[in-house]
User: Which sequence fits this backbone?
C-alpha cells in the first residue's frame, strides 16, 4: 500500500512538472552513488546489478542536469565549504567486479568521470565467501532449489520466480549474517563453487594493479573477508580493516584512504566501526544509508550512499537524485531506510 502511494506521488509529481519545485525544496547539494555490477546480461544475472542502459542514462542525466562528477575528497571539500555553485556526485563501485572494467570503464572514460572502487582482499585472492553470488548461481542454474538451512524448497521455473526466490533467500541472510555460512552444504550439494564464481566475477590481483594506475580510479578498502563487522569481536573487526588496507596498499603501491563497510546497514556497522575506521587510518567510510550529503552534522565515517540498480527505472533514479525520497520521508513520516 505504502509502495502504491509512493509510486502515485512520484508519478504525479513528475507528470505535473513539479520536479523543479521538489528539487529546490528537498534536493541535497551532493550525493555519493553506489553501484555493484554493471551488467550487459542483466536478466540472465537475475537483475542483481545495474543494467548498462540505466548506468549510461545515470551518467548522461547527471551531466545534463548540471551535477559535477568529482572525487570523494573534492566533493567533501565543496560540501564543507558550502559551495553552492554546482551539485556534486561521487561514483562508487563495491566488491571489485570484472564488469566494472569491461563494461563501465569505457563509459566512465567517455564522461571523464572519476570513481572509487572498494575492494575486499578475498575477491582478488579468490577466497571470498560470496554467498550472494552462490545463491544467484543456484537459482540461475536450477528450477527447483532446496535450502536445508532455511527449511525451504523453491520452485522457480521462470525469471520472475527466480528473482523472487533469490530475494527471499538473500533477505534471510541479511536478517542474520551468521546464516551466510549455513549455505555451504547447499552450495556443495548443488556443485556451486564459490572460488569458481570469484574467478568468473571478480577482478584478479593483476587487473586491480593495472586499474589502480588509471587516472580516474581510486581504490578503497572493504575488509579482508567481507563480514558484517558488527558481528565480530573488536580485534577481529580491526584486523579485517587494517589487513585489507595494508594488502591493497602493497598491491597498488598507493595510499588507501577510503573505506566502505560491507553491507553498510545498521546491522553491519555502527559507532564502534566508525572509530575503528578512523583508528585504521582511513579518512572516510561509507554506509548504505540512502541519503544525500548535507553540510550539517557531516560525519566522515558514516557517509550515506544512494544505490542505483536492480529494477530501478530512469524516473526512479531521477526522483532519488532530485530528493524525492527525502520528500517521502518528510511528507509521509517514513523514517525507515529504503
Ligand atoms: Zn560489498
Assistant:
Amino acid at each position: 500500500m505504502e509502495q502504491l502511494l509512493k509510486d502515485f506521488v512520484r508519478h504525479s509529481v513528475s507528470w505535473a512538472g513539479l520536479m523543479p519545485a521538489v528539487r529546490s525544496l528537498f534536493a541535497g547539494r551532493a550525493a555519493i552513488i553506489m553501484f555493484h555490477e554493471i551488467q550487459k546480461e542483466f536478466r540472465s544475472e537475475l537483475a542483481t546489478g545495474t543494467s548498462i542502459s540505466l548506468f549510461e542514462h545515470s551518467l548522461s542525466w547527471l551531466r545534463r542536469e548540471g551535477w559535477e562528477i568529482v572525487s570523494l575528497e573534492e566533493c567533501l571539500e565543496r560540501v564543507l565549504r558550502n559551495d553552492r555553485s554546482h551539485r556534486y556526485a561521487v561514483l562508487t563501485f563495491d566488491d571489485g567486479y570484472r564488469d566494472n572494467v569491461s563494461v563501465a570503464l569505457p563509459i566512465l572514460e567517455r564522461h571523464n568521470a572519476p570513481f572509487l572502487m572498494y575492494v575486499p582482499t578475498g575477491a582478488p585472492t579468490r577466497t571470498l565467501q560470496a554467498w550472494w553470488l552462490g545463491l544467484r548461481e543456484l537459482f540461475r542454474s536450477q528450477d527447483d532449489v532446496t535450502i536445508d538451512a532455511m527449511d525451504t524448497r523453491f520452485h522457480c521455473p521462470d525469471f520472475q520466480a527466480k528473482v523472487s526466490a533469490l530475494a527471499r533467500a538473500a533477505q534471510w541472510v541479511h536478517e542474520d549474517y551468521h546464516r551466510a555460512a549455513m549455505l555451504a552444504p547447499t552450495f556443495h550439494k548443488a556443485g556451486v563453487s564459490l572460488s569458481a564464481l570469484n574467478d568468473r566475477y571478480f577482478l584478479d590481483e593483476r587487473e586491480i594493479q593495472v586499474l589502480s594506475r588509471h587516472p580516474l580510479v581510486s581504490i578503497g578498502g572493504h575488509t579482508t573477508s567481507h563480514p558484517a563487522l558488527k558481528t565480530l569481536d573488536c580485534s577481529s573487526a580491526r584486523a579485517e580493516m587494517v589487513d585489507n588496507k595494508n594488502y591493497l596498499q602493497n598491491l597498488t603501491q598507493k595510499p588507501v584512504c577510503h573505506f566502505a563497510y560491507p553491507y553498510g546497514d545498521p546491522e553491519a556497522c555502527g559507532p564502534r566501526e566508525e572509530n575503528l575506521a578512523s583508528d585504521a587510518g582511513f579518512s572516510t567510510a561509507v554506509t548504505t544509508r540512502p541519503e544525500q550529503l548535507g553540510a550539517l552534522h557531516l560525519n566522515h565515517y558514516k557517509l550515506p550512499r544512494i544505490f542505483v540498480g536492480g529494477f530501478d527505472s530512469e524516473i526512479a533514479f531521477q526522483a532519488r537524485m532530485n530528493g524525492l525520497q527525502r520528500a517521502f520521508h518528510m511528507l509521509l513520516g517514513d523514517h525507515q531506510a529504503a
User: Anything to note?
Assistant: Residues 94-95, 222, 226, 262 surround zinc ion (CB under 6 Å). The domain at 28-124+206-321 is CATH 3.20.20.370 (TIM Barrel). DSSP finds 14 helices and twelve strands in the chain.
